[in-house]
């Protein structure tokens, strides 16, 4: 939540000209984006977001992310559209950082999602998956099963500094997922981080999706399992079955799950909970207490994981067997 | 440079409705404002700034600041206009903070001001002083000569931690100003903080002034002396006589200084330099090293003060005696 890199008025005016975006009217550094620096830019041609990519982003991945946004826009998915400069490029450089300009998407993210929002998110996720089918580029999921093992090795016994017994829980779960993780489910482009702060609404109408910097190719139903973890638990970590039913119903209104996806869903939900538990645990241990960005509490995902471990059938998520 | 207080979507949508500003489209916390939290808000009726006043602002002063902005707008000065809610009030409450909504002013602040900008700033400052004449409210300058003594007492010998000999320099200067400070110059509303980041330009055209939270009633020419310190020294603290001449010429194109103001100008310039030296020194000593907001370097104002101490005539600032 910070502006890591300053941009001068002269440099930005020059950039805006290169992009054919008219005259620079104003720009403000915005307190969003944990990893990158973002400016909201008004020009005589409209409102845009300028993103400067900081250290944690691998710039080799940017063509995939930018290409995906262009593809999704072409397919009618509402998300930011990268602007091409006069050389036809979407990536540029400013203040010593790789940077991109995308169209600004109106909408607010919902702090307390209701059932109606969950339905809309499920539907938008299915729309994204369908539109992604024709996207030709491929990026493997660095935060899949192998990546989880890597993070666990980095955590080691230190996980217990967060909560006693956490290292044992993670090792138990990884051993289970090594055996149970499905390998033949339908795959495609997934968002992989569809949390409430990445979905915009105007009133109750979903206006678009943002932040595709974890997007990759993986099992589609796993993406739905991530969204279920993100949207269908209350702040006290209680599972909300009504919201889950709304989410999966919204999703299946456009893309019904296969029988294999439905059966695998409890395992996918466990994997999704473990994925965020692991990265949050790592951030928790590696963020100094005076950091600008407060790390998310990993315990919320310990609780989700424990819930999923007790689930005995996909029906508990609102996924009924096919008639 | 931070968002100190979070605002939820529900609370803001409710507030927007109370202000009759249509539908909430988006809002972003902006990384500006050292003392307060600011959000840029898009509604179906336009773009606005929502400010939440944090601890350092005395809310008893807000009616003066808000009334001044309304008055200046009425007089044709380009600055943010407070929006009144359905009860006719400009101040409200959100997230436990006193808050106000003002219209958004397009423009960027100029990181490297040129002579043309200095002329425009001088002119705009005179415009502000003329428009302020008919403003009925009054606020004394807490950062006048008496206030400087107060800050010096808080600094004490600690000033020497910033630079050896600084305490002596400050005491010498305060003793001089006690004798030389003019008491009968024309007074009126002054901005009192017209630094480059508070003046917006679109291209070379000045689009407006912002941040009136130091505004008060004091000697008009002192405000020009503050602007001279802020605009007419290079980053290496060298005085730029061309920019100074442009600033005072722009000012006098609308409001010629009286003979007394011109003669007093070198003293006013010393006082203005000392005022920022003192507050910066205090911030420097009281800001912990991990703070979100980096304090400004007081030494830049030591250098300005030393320059002004050597000045022997108002002509050095471009202020020629009347013909």
TrEMBL record, chains A, B:
CDD domains: HomoserineK_II (cd05153)
SUPFAM superfamilies: Protein kinase-like (PK-like) (SSF56112)
Catalysed reactions, as listed in the record: L-homoserine + ATP = O-phospho-L-homoserine + ADP + H(+)
Alphabetic keyword roster: Amino-acid biosynthesis, ATP-binding, Kinase, Nucleotide-binding, Threonine biosynthesis, Transferase
GO molecular function, one term: homoserine kinase activity
Leading EC class: transferase
EC numbers, comma separated: 2.7.1.39
Keyword Phosphoprotein: no
Protein's recorded name: Homoserine kinase
Annotated source species: Hyphomicrobium nitrativorans NL23
Upper taxonomic lineage: Bacteria, Pseudomonadati, Pseudomonadota, Alphaproteobacteria, Hyphomicrobiales
Gene, per the UniProt record: thrB
């Amino acid at each position: 939540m910070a502006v890591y890199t300053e941009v001068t008025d002269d440099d930005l005016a020059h950039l805006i000209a290169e992009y054919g975006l008219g005259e620079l009217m104003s720009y403000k550094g915005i307190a969003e984006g944990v990893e990158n620096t973002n400016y909201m830019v008004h020009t005589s041609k409209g409102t845009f977001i300028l993103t400067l990519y900081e250290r944690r982003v691998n710039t080799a991945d940017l063509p995939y992310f930018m290409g995906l946004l262009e593809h999704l826009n072409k397919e009618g998915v509402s998300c930011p559209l990268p602007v091409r400069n006069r050389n036809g490029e979407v990536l540029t450089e400013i203040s010593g950082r790789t940077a991109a300009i995308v169209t600004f998407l109106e909408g607010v993210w919902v702090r307390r999602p209701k059932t109606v929002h969950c339905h809309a998110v499920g539907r938008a996720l299915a729309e994204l998956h369908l539109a992604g089918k024709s996207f030709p580029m491929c990026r493997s999921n660095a935060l899949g099963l192998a990546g989880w093992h890597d993070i666990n090795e980095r955590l080691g016994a230190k996980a217990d500094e967060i909560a006693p017994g956490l290292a044992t829980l993670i090792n138990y779960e990884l051993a289970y997922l090594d055996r149970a993780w499905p390998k033949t489910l339908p795959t495609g482009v997934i968002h992989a981080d569809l949390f409430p702060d990445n979905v915009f609404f105007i009133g109750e109408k979903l206006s678009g999706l943002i932040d595709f910097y974890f997007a990759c190719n993986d099992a589609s139903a796993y993406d739905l399992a991530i969204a279920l973890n993100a949207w269908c638990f209350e702040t006290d970590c209680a599972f909300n079955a009504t919201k889950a039913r709304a989410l999966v119903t919204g999703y299946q209104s456009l893309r019904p799950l296969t029988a294999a996806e439905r059966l695998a869903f409890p395992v996918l939900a466990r994997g999704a909970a473990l994925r965020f538990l692991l990265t949050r645990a790592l951030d928790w241990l590696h963020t100094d207490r005076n950091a600008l960005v407060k790390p998310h509490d990993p315990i919320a995902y310990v609780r989700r994981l424990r819930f999923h471990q007790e689930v005995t059938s996909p029906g508990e998520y609102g996924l009924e067997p096919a008639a």
